[in-house]
Specification:
The chain is 43% helix and 14% strand. With 197 residues, the protein is α/β, with parallel strands linked by helices. It has a single domain, classed as P-loop containing nucleotide triphosphate hydrolases (Rossmann fold, 3-Layer(aba) Sandwich). The structure holds adenosine-5'-diphosphate (ADP). Residues 32, 34-41, 103, 138, 140, 174, 177-179, 182 line the site of adenosine-5'-diphosphate (ADP). Pfam families: APS_kinase.
Length: 197
């Protein structure tokens, strides 16, 4: 742990950044099983925001694990650290005025609650609610097949639990929504919360 560190106050305020960009910043925290559609929907929302002239970015589970978090595994301690680092990165990005989507399974209530508590900007939890059977049918990365064969330890939904959100700001039931409809629901939530106009 480093000591003798003093927080340096930024010279550009949050209000100034909001005025410059024409929208507020927030964290869109997507959570759901593997294959539920987090990355797909987060990217569809990102495209819509881009087309509206908003400044946004998606932190994607696999991409972050390629770099920043490549030293972390999938055991409980690593999952907690994974979420903590993502939260801190999202904080830096929202501090810079962005609308940040995070697409991580984030299976544990306590970790998502911690992310919410640590968030400096508005925190919008988006539950990508897709039944396990459908995720397993989609199996876009072939991971369920491997997990069922016992080749992936601690696989959420199979050998590790998923704790669904209790009161998510946005609840997407993807069994009855296509990607476009799901993304539009997120955009509407951002309008209702005065993050975008
Ligand atoms: P995750 O990021 O949650 O692991 P992905 O977005 O990588 O999931 O994969 C979800 C897969 O399901 C994609 O291949 C996507 O095209 C497909 N899919 C089918 N219907 C939907 C839907 N209604 N919403 C989101 N994804 C869907």
């Amino acid at each position: 742990m480093s000591t003798n560190i003093v927080w340096h106050q930024a010279s550009v305020s949050t209000a100034e950044r909001t005025a410059q960009k024409g929208h507020a910043s927030c964290v869109l925290w997507y959570t759901g099983l593997s294959g539920s559609g987090k990355s797909t929907i987060a990217n569809a929302v990102d495209r819509k925001l881009y087309e509206r002239g908003c400044h946004s970015y998606v932190l994607d589970g696999d991409n972050v694990r390629h770099g920043l978090n490549k030293d972390l595994g999938f055991d409980d301690v690593s999952r907690v650290e994974n979420i903590r680092r993502i939260t801190e990165v999202a904080n830096l990005m929202t501090d810079a005025g962005l609308i940040v989507g995070t697409a991580f399974i984030s299976p544990f209530l306590v970790d998502r609650e911690q992310a919410r508590q640590l968030a400096v900007a508005k925190f919008v939890e988006v539950f990508v609610d897709t039944p396990l059977g459908i995720c397993e049918q989609r199996d876009p990365k072939g991971l369920y097949k491997k997990a069922r064969a016992g080749d992936i330890p601690h696989f959420t939904g199979i050998s590790s639990p998923y704790e669904p959100p209790v009161m998510p700001e946005v609840h997407l039931r993807t069994a009855s929504l296509n990607v476009e409809e799901a993304a539009e629901q997120v955009i509407q939530a951002l309008i209702e919360k005065d993050i975008i106009s």
